[in-house]
Amino acid sequence: MTAVAVHQFAQCITCHAWSPDHSMVAFCPNNNEIHIYRSSEDKWERVHILYKHDQIVSGIDWSAKSNKLVTVSHDRNSYVWSQEASEWVPTLVILRLNRAALCVQWSPKENKFAVGSGAKTVCICYYEQENNWWVSKLIRKKHDSSVTSVAWHPDNILLATTSTDGKCRVFSTFIKGVDTRDSGASLASDAKFGEQIIQLDLSFSWAFGVKWSPSGNTLAYVGHNSTIYFVDDVGPSPLAQNVAFQDLPLRDVLFVSEKMVIGVGFDCNPMLFGADERGIWGFVKFLDERKIAPSTSKYGSQFSEAFGKLYGQKQVGNDAVESSKPRGGVHENCINCILPLEKTGDGRVKRFSTSGLDGKVVIWDLEDQEDILSYS
């Protein structure tokens, strides 16, 4: 499978998000700006540049129902942007952070959003109607290092996080007056705000992207040790699996269906993982068919492969190196973001987009792939 559309928007993109109708895309070109492009007659036209942050924008999410943008930045601030006529109007969210904000995501009901930070803190933000402002409640003293990713459970209460302390955690975010008890899953039915439901110590390296399956029954996250972790029955007795691979580490993941996950990262090529009829997860294939597989010499190693990528060489022996062949992939640098773009009637993702440090936004189509559909 190859990409159906490739758009070179900038030299580098830190994050991106789509409008509800997918006619516009917002991204940060590795600075303090948010650029918004609109598609018109197979061409992309820049329609807005949002200026408010002082440092690199590290996270963007576009709500599907309310058409609001939320952004976070290394300047420790967050803004909720509302479109009024032809202008985007920002509202400051007081995060009370002393370190950079690193990631953000709207909850499924869009009445809250979560912000992970370098302050070892997660901010759960919600709107106070009587005061007409966004406020935050903090989950403190639970992480030992920076929070790199957040993911909402479909119940709108549970929140999964990953951190550079190597752990994945699940918290209750129940807020009285915002949530109702009957909206929570059994795990969070009686839990108070900020209560830790489970801590997963599966990785011995930094942990990055985390996602729930569509049903919320399975959790997947990735480690910097070229391993992806799958956890079923999240709770007192979870069932965990890990899949280690020989390629470079992943940065983000996306559930395409209950039994299929796509991971993206430093190898510049989306990787497909699937679960068989027994529920055993494994690597299936790379999605970019144009990529040239790396050499697997007797003396090769993951480090030498990474070193060769950096300097355009590959290791062929203890001392000798030779020029590497062009990899030929759509992405030419680390992919740091993957988002669903279109779903089928039963909730499976059939199109998704990726963005990376090469400044590209790429759209991929999973339809008509028999080996992929077999895992759906």
TrEMBL record:
GO terms for molecular function: actin filament binding. WD repeats lie at residues 50-91, 140-172. GO terms for cellular component: Arp2/3 protein complex. InterPro entries: ARPC1, WD40/YVTN_repeat-like_dom_sf, WD40_repeat_dom_sf, WD40_rpt. One of its GO terms (biological process) is Arp2/3 complex-mediated actin nucleation. Its main location: cytoplasm. It is found in: Cytoplasm, Cytoskeleton. The keyword Cytoplasm applies. SMART domains: WD40. Pfam families: WD40. Keywords: Actin-binding, Cytoplasm, Cytoskeleton, Repeat, WD repeat. PROSITE patterns: WD_REPEATS_2, WD_REPEATS_REGION. Belongs to the WD repeat ARPC1 family. Functions as component of the Arp2/3 complex which is involved in regulation of actin polymerization and together with an activating nucleation-promoting factor (NPF) mediates the formation of branched actin networks. Functions as a component of the Arp2/3 complex which is involved in regulation of actin polymerization and together with an activating nucleation-promoting factor (NPF) mediates the formation of branched actin networks. Arp2/3 complex plays a critical role in the control of cell morphogenesis via the modulation of cell polarity development. Component of the Arp2/3 complex composed of ARP2, ARP3, ARPC1/p41-ARC, ARPC2/p34-ARC, ARPC3/p21-ARC, ARPC4/p20-ARC and ARPC5/p16-ARC. This is Actin-related protein 2/3 complex subunit.
